[in-house]
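Any chance you could type out some protein's one-letter sequence along with its backbone structure tokens so I can compare the two?
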Amino acid sequence: MGQIVDRVKIKSSTLLSDDWFILKKHHFEYMRSDGVWQEQTRETYDRGNGATILPYNRAARTVVLVKQFRLAAYVNGHDGFLIEACAGLLDSDDPDTAIKRELAEEAGLEVLRIEKVFDCFMSPGSVTERLHFYIGEYEKCEIAARGGVDGEDIEILELPFEEALAMVKSGEILDAKTIMLLQYLQLHVMKN
């Protein structure tokens, strides 16, 4: 699968912001499925591609998640402190290297091996990011209380797997990537 470039003609792209990440406005023509060309204008937010991982311990039936402040959630009426799977941007690394780096930086944790489970676009209506999803088994060890680098303020949580699932149902876990990874683990790894 690739882009269907014969159905899209980019007419112009205007840089709106290059402060934190890149926000552009695109004017383009799109050929609808009925063969009619339609002019459209959309904005895209390019923050780069990323990777996320859910560390788990099968024997202890635990997972490691992080809790940190997210301004976007805060300005949308939440307290801003989200419980999430470790994640980060690829920067110039391949996804496997990037996720090992992020896991070490955010949670101070190493896994026995990483397993890539899928990729997806999390908000393709406007955000260009493609996210690479991983799981990884860790050995039972002393988990640090705090993590992060470069000014990150991250609380590290080791939770019973069933409690993490219950937190999705109760609304304590609202992060999409985390919910997807917990459900993947439930279906494929932590079966009763």
